[in-house]
């Protein structure tokens, strides 16, 4: 019995990941004609067209969709087996890591994280990106190395996670606001003029769910897309911002913060990464660095 050409697995992984002959050729550093010949071999070997013409593009067949994750895991495992195990030399490491976070993370932890990285690995550069959603596509395609955030429905089932810290929502007003001078009750909190924070422009959120059983409803004056914007408005107007405590520590400087008088659950902020980087020594070091930096950062 003839053994199949296992090199075709790498080609198949590229074809299924890119969804195009040109993209797969670029990924494998092959010419488009060589890639077309490889696709023809794949079709013959698998007995399936894999990619079929749809208008001006190509779409994957059901068989291709079925194989995509399985083939990706096989290639990653094969690469891990064949990769030589070497001790990590941080002083010689030259690498750029892309971290995707929500606003407040860089302001609170970024400077210390950069300083610690420079001390141990001066050739490492950290690139911070805003996190517009909880989708895992950027982790899958390798454009993002590490994320910090709450695990949600959009998080891929294969994504690895590790708890980073626990956080809670707090109320924030300017110094001199009526709520800065009293013990805040649920009724007083609800009576304020509020800023809602939603990346999708939604008015209701967890706070409103917690108020409803008490027969209370807050007045939403405006909706913004970030906690930083909410705090900027609260700083200059008689408005109430409700934001995560630890992630906005430095952003709240000079403002009055109070505990919410509501039964709000705490949230767990996690590190998220794709399993292909799980055993990568440099990535392991980075994860440990982020964990240590957040653990050592004082709460405000």
Please describe the topology of this protein.
Elements: H1 7-18, H2 21-28, H3 32-46, E1 51-54, E2 57-60, H4 62-82, E3 95-101, H5 105-120, E4 124-130, H6 137-140, E5 146-149, E6 160-167, E7 169-173, H7 186-191, E8 193-197, H8 206-211, E9 219-224, H9 227-236, E10 240-244, E11 256-259, E12 267-273, H10 281-296
Parallel strand pairs: 3-4, 3-5, 8-9, 8-10
Antiparallel strand pairs: 1-2, 5-12, 6-12, 7-10, 7-11
Helix pairs in contact: 1-2, 1-3, 1-4, 2-3, 5-10
Task: Supply the key terms.
3 domains; 12 strands; 38% helix; five-stranded mixed β-sheet; D-Maltodextrin-Binding Protein, domain 2; Arc Repressor Mutant, subunit A; elongated; alpha/beta; 300 residues
Structure description:
With 300 residues, the protein is α/β, with parallel strands linked by helices. It has helices at 7-18, 21-28, 32-46, 62-82, 105-120, 137-140, 186-191, 206-211, 227-236, 281-296, and strands at 51-54, 57-60, 95-101, 124-130, 146-149, 160-167, 169-173, 193-197, 219-224, 240-244, 256-259, 267-273. It is elongated and about 80 Å long. The mean pLDDT is 89. The protein folds into three domains: 7-82, Arc Repressor Mutant, subunit A, CATH 1.10.10; 90-167 and 268-296, D-Maltodextrin-Binding Protein, domain 2, CATH 3.40.190.10; 169-265, Periplasmic binding protein-like II (D-Maltodextrin-Binding Protein, domain 2), CATH 3.40.190. The strands form three sheets. A five-stranded mixed β-sheet has the order 4-3-5-12-6, covered by helices on one side. A hairpin with a 2-residue loop joins strand 1 and strand 2 (57-60). Helix 1 packs across helix 3 (32-46), helix 2 crosses helix 3 (32-46) and helix 5 (105-120) crosses helix 10. The protein is built from ten helices and twelve strands.
């Amino acid at each position: 019995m003839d053994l199949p050409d296992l090199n075709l697995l790498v080609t198949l992984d590229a074809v299924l990941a890119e969804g195009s002959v040109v993209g797969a050729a670029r990924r494998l550093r092959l010419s488009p004609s060589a890639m077309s010949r490889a696709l023809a071999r794949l079709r013959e070997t698998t007995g399936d067209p894999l990619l079929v013409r749809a208008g001006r593009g190509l779409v994957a067949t059901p068989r291709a969709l079925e194989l995509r994750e399985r083939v990706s895991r096989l290639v990653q495992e094969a690469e891990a087996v064949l990769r030589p195990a070497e001790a990590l030399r941080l002083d010689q490491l030259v690498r750029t890591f892309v971290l995707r976070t929500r606003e407040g993370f860089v302001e609170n932890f970024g400077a210390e994280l950069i300083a610690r990285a420079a001390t141990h690995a001066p050739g490492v550069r950290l690139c911070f990106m805003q996190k517009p959603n909880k989708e895992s596509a950027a982790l899958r395609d390798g454009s993002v190395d590490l994320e910090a955030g709450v695990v949600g429905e959009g998080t891929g089932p294969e994504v690895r996670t590790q708890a980073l810290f626990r956080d809670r929502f707090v109320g924030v007003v300017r110094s001199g606001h009526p709520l800065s001078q009293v013990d805040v009750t649920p009724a007083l909190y609800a009576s304020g003029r509020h800023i809602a924070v939603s990346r999708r422009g939604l008015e209701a959120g967890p706070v409103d769910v917690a108020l409803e059983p008490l027969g209370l409803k807050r007045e939403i004056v405006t909706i913004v897309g970030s906690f930083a914007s909410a705090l900027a408005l609260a700083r200059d107007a008689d408005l109430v911002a409700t934001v995560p405590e630890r992630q906005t520590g430095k952003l709240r400087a000079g403002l009055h913060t109070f505990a919410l008088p509501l039964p709000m659950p705490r949230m767990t902020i996690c590190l998220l990464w794709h399993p292909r980087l799980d055993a990568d020594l440099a990535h392991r070091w980075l994860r440990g660095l982020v964990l240590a930096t957040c653990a050592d950062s004082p709460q405000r």
